[in-house]
Amino acid sequence: MQYKTQGVCSQMINFDIEDNKVKNVAFTGGCNGNLQGISRLIEGMDVDEAISKIEGIQCGFKKTSCPDQLAKALKKATGK
Question: What residues contact 62, with CB distance under 8 A and at least 6 apart?
């Protein structure tokens, strides 16, 4: 799935969901090292667990963050 982010430095998130597990997360743009870390940490994680861990994280004074945008993308993809 491809998700266009809003309000953050990254422009796009690509990911797959297989058997309700998060797979192959890749961000376009943003803080490369941090986003690679997030991608690796949630690889293979249950979608609901991933959402609960990253939803609502803010970046500085922004009301969202790249992890929060990923949570939104996962929710959209699963209809939650």
Answer: 7, 8
The structure tokens 């991608």 sit at 39
Phi, psi of 58 (to 5 degrees): -110, 155
Report the amino acid identity of residue 10. Answer: S
- Among residues 6, 4, 2, which one has the least CA distance to residue 64? 6
Q: What are phi and psi of 34, to 5 degrees?
A: -60, -40
Q: At which residue do the structure tokens 């803010």 appear?
A: 58
63 CB neighbour count, 10 Å cutoff: 9
- 39: Cα within 13 Å, side-chain hemisphere: 17
pTM over 0.90: yes
Read off the pLDDT of residues 25-79 as tens digits, 9 standing for 90 and up.
Answer: 999 999 999 999 999 999 999 999 999 999 999 999 999 999 999 999 999 999 9
Bridge partners, residue 13, by sequence: 3, 27
